[in-house]
Please model this.
Amino acid sequence: MAVRTDLFESPDYYQLDDLLNEEHLMVRSAVRDYVKTSISPIIEDYAQRAEFPQQIIKQLGDLGCFGPTVPVEYGGGGLDYISYGIMMQELERGDSGVRSTASVQGSLVMFPIHAYGSEEQKMKYLPKLASGEWLGCFGLTEPDHGSDPGGMLTNIKDAGDHVILNGAKMWISNAPFAQVAVVWAKNEEGKIIGLIVERGMEGFSTPTTHNKWSLRASATGELVFDNVKVPKENILPNVIGLKGPLGCLSKARYGIAWGALGAAMDCYDTALRYSKERVQFGKPIAGFQLQQKKLAEMLTEITKGQLLVWRLGVLMNQGKATPAQISMAKRNSCEIATQITRDARQMLGGMGITGEYSVMRHMMNLESVITYEGTHDIHLLITGMDITGLNAFK
Ligand code: TGC
Ligand code: FAD
Model:
């Protein structure tokens, strides 16, 4: 396996470090070091082989990247939302799939158990998920219901002390390795409820999704429920309706807004270094106006994005961030990161398509990031509805 040296230097054009406190800087330094020593050297090989590096589950748990905002009494980090954002930025600087593993565990599995679960559920699941002893996944999307999850067909029927779960979810991150799944299903009144399904329950299987050209180092699968008997004590008691899963998505989308910027920062840094070293027509290509235009625009967009997510983090800490504000940030970060990875790839010429550099991997990963947790179009429509009051979804 090739060992790669990670030379990353973080762009901070507007001295945004001045906005961070000591805790934020410590978190960043710890996660950045981890990515440099444990992710960058191995991730390209895992992505090329389309294999999930299972060792990261325990490592991310030890580092405190699972449920950083969950209170410490449940095994979480008790940190603020800026620290959480910084973690996601640094992890995605390494690979979007690594950030995905942490986003799903923290925002889509631990958050709903903490926010909507019973005390018994919190004590049973959260410490094991926080430490990485267990991995979780989140089942919302179905084969026929992606952007429109309210139409889901997965359902439960009452059977005394348990319910019978039937249906299928697809495109589920972490599914093939998860011990627990937070699953959204309709009850007999057609209302959406959340329940915790455990590996080993009869009739529950998690087939792996193959042939992805994106997020190749992240495990994706289906969740298939064939008359699964789920004890009623596994139902999340404190939420009903689509606002349950959408509330989780707000937390995860916030993390992605920071995360996608991390991928963009890595590509900018790589393109800057390469263009100063690569000589054509007798001078470094960084000396040509066309390449400077790309670099200048990349850094401008990264700096604007950094300001946006930092401000959103402050609003999150104050409990004032709206879902529409989160949508705007998720959409913006994905848009600029997608463009930056493509420009960076071109700046590297032929080398840009190889695994010698992280750029093509980031570029392919971002095609998933711009699609999951609400597509680019869906987030635009959320913004459109927020500013006009008119629903253009339906
Ligand atoms: P709508 O009628 O607008 O809303 C239903 C209820 O939900 C409330 N709500 C929210 N609550 C909290 N946070 C949010 N972001 C919320 N958005 C809406 C809303 O107030 C309402 O509450 P109530 O009390 O009135 O019932 O619902 P709709 O059916 O019209 O759909 C709206 C739409 C299209 C915006 C929504 O369904 C949507 O966001 N679609 C995109 C689906 C999506 O994002 N799927 C993600 C699946 S998970 C995933 O991709 C994980 S990848 C993770 C990784 O690997 O990193
Ligand atoms: P569709 O909803 O079919 O959309 C297709 C196109 O139509 C898109 O361009 C969309 O923007 C557009 N469109 C849809 N509705 C409208 C409208 N009203 N107006 C205009 N345009 C519209 N889901 C989970 O539940 N858990 C996970 O862990 C998870 N992980 C994922 C991992 C990966 C790698 C991927 C690729 C997806 C994952 N997803 C997960 C699913 C993801 O959230 C969905 O793919 C996404 O929400 C889009 O749904 P869809 O693929 O069915 O596309």
Remarks:
- The domain at 243-388 is CATH 1.20.140.10 (Butyryl-CoA Dehydrogenase, subunit A; domain 3).
- The chain is about 50% helix and 15% strand.
- Residues 4 and 204 are 40 Å apart (CA to CA).
- Residues 100, 103-104, 138, 140-141, 147, 149-150, 173, 241-243, 246-247, 249-250, 252, 323, 372-374, 378, 382, 393 surround 3-thiaglutaryl-CoA (ligand 1) (CB under 6 Å).
